[in-house]
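Re: that chain you flagged

S.,

Sorry for the slow reply, it's been a week of failed gels. I finally had a moment to sit down with the sequence you sent. For the record, here it is as I used it:
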Amino acid sequence: MRNHHKILSITGAAILAAGAVILLPAAAQAKTTSVPCNEAALVTAVNTANAAGGGTITLLAGCTYTLTSSNGNDGVNGPAGLPIITTPITFEGNANIIKRSATASAFRIVQVGPTGGITLKAVTLSGGHAAATGHDNGGGILNFGAVTLTGSTLSGNTANGLGGAVYSTGTPSAATFTSSTVKANTARQAAGIASVNGTLTLTSSVVNTNAATVNPGGIYYVAGSATLNTSTVTANIPTNCVSSPSPVPGCIG
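Prediction finished late last night. Pasting the structure tokens below so you have them in one place:
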């Protein structure tokens, strides 16, 4: 009788162990929910990530998120389509576009605060327009913190001032481009990238066909640091980097 109980106990333990083995992979396979393909859901996701101290926002594959109104404004730098980024947030994309509606009032796509950071992976930002009087820099992105693009694109953005695609400024600011493209943006000056007192790094990236009223049309850089690694700055108007206040290493014409 004692042997019978012993066998039952061992068998029960084996079943529990087997159950644990079966359950663990199921938990590990939990799916990440993508943000639904609409403006309200995207704005909510950014607000939630900011409130949580940062995080990853997974975008619905192939979705174009169209912004019809401003959802961020610090009362100083003019309106932005997305809420101001105040924490480190990654946009995990898959052939996604975040754009301002052609019929919307003028606003840039996003502003990154000094404590914030935005990482774009396989995402295009397009159609931003910085036009607020005296605060018209950074048509696509106005950056006071950290901007990181990987396999992403800034195109078709406009600034009435500096930095059609991105204006990055301040001692803590950094703009890093890897395998990314900055193209077909417009501005009064520096239709592509403007970096002032910050860190600018381009690796295997392209800045081309951006058009400014005042040169340079490609990259405007002053103080801080600028590094181009196997990257090209070409076909920008009126120049690529000529007349940048600080020379851009590796940029010709």
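What I noticed first: The helical segments are 2-28, 39-51.

Talk soon,
D.
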